[in-house]
């Protein structure tokens, strides 16, 4: 589903993997379940908190709201990257939730994703990848951040979100999409 065609709901939209890491490492480890805490993020994850937690931003923006509590990537990106010679799996790019069956990058800002029976996150923007991606696999940054001939930049490393409703999320949980009111606002980096 994309913002341009909100009526086209994929037949299977789900959570493929949930991942977390207590330290500030690039990749996150798959888990049997994660607990989302409203306004905070994923319990036990290094990026959980009401204010900015990412080390690259914390020094100058430590008192600003944390708009990057949960990172989501669609599994289909891994297939695209495989055709370009990269091996990437769930959690490898630091995402907390790996989804399947939804074009996350095509959703508008403010979209609420209901994960399982209880949890919900609101998309705040695009993830802005850094050079750590090339440390993971050389050349991957160029593969996930492209610039077209007109100079427009396309970022393909998922979306960031804040937790609007807490709850437990597990692989296999359903994912329901709630679009914001019109007019829709395109995603930018946060």
Write the layout of secondary structure elements.
Layout: E1 14-20, E2 29-31, E3 34-37, E4 41-42, H1 55-61, E5 70-74, H2 76-83, E6 97-100, E7 112-115, E8 119-126, H3 132-136, H4 140-144, E9 145-147, E10 153-155, E11 159-165, E12 167-169, E13 175-178
Parallel strand pairs: 5-6
Antiparallel strand pairs: 1-2, 1-6, 3-4, 3-12, 5-11, 7-8, 7-13, 8-11, 9-10
CATH architecture: Beta Barrel
- What value does the Rg take, in angstroms? 16 Å
Order of H and E elements:
EEEEHEHEEEHHEEEEE
Instruction: Give the neighbour order of strands across the main sheet.
Output: 2-1-6-5-11-8-7-13
Strand content: 25-35%
Regions with little confidence, pLDDT below 50 for 5+ residues = none
Query: Structural class of the secondary structure composition?
Result: alpha+beta
Would you state the CATH class? Mainly Beta
CATH superfamily: PK beta-barrel domain-like
Using the coordinates shown, work out and report the CATH topology: M1 Pyruvate Kinase, Domain 3
> Helix fraction?
10-25%
In total, the number of domains comes to 1
Helix count from the secondary structure assignment:
4
* Extended strand count: 13
Largest sheet: 8 strands, mixed
General shape: globular
Assembly context of the chains: single chain
Mean pLDDT: 91
Protein name: MOSC domain-containing protein
GO molecular function, one term: molybdenum ion binding
Domain MOSC: 29-178
Pfam family, one: MOSC
How would you summarize what this structure contains?
By secondary structure, the chain is α+β, with helices and mostly antiparallel strands.
């Amino acid at each position: 589903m994309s913002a341009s065609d909100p009526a086209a709901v994929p037949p299977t939209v789900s959570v493929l993997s949930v991942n977390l890491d207590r330290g500030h490492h690039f990749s996150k480890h798959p888990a049997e379940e994660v607990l989302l805490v409203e306004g905070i993020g994923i319990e036990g994850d290094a990026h959980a908190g009401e204010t900015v937690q990412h080390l690259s931003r914390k020094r100058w923006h430590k008192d600003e709201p944390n708009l990057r509590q949960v990172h989501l990537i669609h599994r289909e990106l891994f297939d695209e990257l495989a055709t370009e010679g990269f091996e990437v799996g769930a959690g490898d790019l630091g995402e907390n939730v790996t989804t399947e069956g939804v074009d996350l990058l095509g959703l508008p800002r403010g979209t609420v994703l209901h994960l399982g029976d209880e949890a919900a996150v609101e998309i705040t923007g695009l993830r802005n990848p850094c050079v750590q991606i090339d440390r993971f696999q050389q050349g991957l940054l160029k593969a996930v951040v492209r610039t077209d001939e007109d100079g427009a930049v396309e970022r393909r490393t998922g979306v960031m979100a804040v937790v609007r409703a807490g709850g437990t999320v597990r692989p296999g949980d359903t994912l329901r999409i709630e679009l914001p009111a019109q007019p829709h606002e395109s995603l930018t980096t946060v």
